[in-house]
Design brief:
Blueprint (H helix, E strand, L loop, with lengths): L7 E4 L5 H12 L3 E6 L2 H11 L5 E5 L7 H13 L4 E4 L14 H28 L3 E6 L3 H4 L6 H21 L4 E8 L5 H4 L3 H10 L9 H11 L10 E4 L7
Parallel strand pairs: 1-2, 1-4, 2-3, 4-5, 5-6, 6-7
Bound molecules: nicotinamide-adenine-dinucleotide.
Amino acid sequence: MAGFAGKIVLVTGASRGIGLELARAFADAGAAVGYAGRDADSVARGRERLGEGPRLRGFAADLARSGAPERLVAAAVEAFGGIDVLVNNAGIAGPADPWQVDEAEWDRVQTVNLRAAFFCARAAVRHMKARGGGSIVNVSSVAGQIGGVATGPAYVAAKAGLIGLTRSLARQFAPLGVRVNCIAPADIETDMTAAWPDELRRRLVALTPLGRFGTAREVCGAALYLAGDDASFVTGQTLNVNGGIYMG
Ligand SMILES: NC(=O)c1ccc[n+]([C@@H]2O[C@H](COP(=O)([O-])OP(=O)(O)OC[C@H]3O[C@@H](n4cnc5c(N)ncnc54)[C@H](O)[C@@H]3O)[C@@H](O)[C@H]2O)c1
């Protein structure tokens, strides 16, 4: 697979879980990596696992806040001198029960999962354009494709929206040399899924042809493929990393 030596990568939601493994995988592939978390504490926890140095920097940015995506991208560009790859991974699930969702919770789920992805992407593309192109990978979910078994309507709508956003941006930014693709994982062992009850986990495993949850590490190959030169003719696509639970 293509290496990332000399490339600058920014991963959001990288203080733990899938994002942390993505940041590690890009760094192992030779990239300079900015890893972002919601606040200083979460970045510090990411730093304990990833380290910090000339090719690794942590950034705190609460992406639910207005202007945070632009400030995050600006900070990464200032630290590394540009940006070649953006991974929009930050996400929150919100309540699964539709009767428990209030307007503030609905807005928060849309903002972190979807609005922030758009504004991070637009801010990053301004800099990618100056470097002759780049690549964006959005982390959606199987929930946005099948309606969500463990997650509720706000999350499902946001993740389906992210697939639509990917297609829109793929068209809009192609003339600038920027490819935009999406990953749709299902049921990966992280803090997000650790709290799910055993009965739900058993039900999900039974629905999954490969018969288990995946690991965060197993999501990385798809992201590196889509972000790198091996995928130079691939844009607007969704790559499913889901053990076969959905075959679309
Ligand atoms: N774990 C799964 O089974 C699964 C399946 C499909 C999709 N996903 C998606 O993958 C991504 C990562 O999931 P995970 O399981 O690693 O989750 P996680 O909860 O372990 O990590 C989420 C990350 O997002 C960050 N984040 C949350 N709110 C934020 C905010 N307001 N501002 C900035 N960052 C914020 C957190 O700091 C953390 O780093 C999410 O987008 C999630 O929806 C996960």
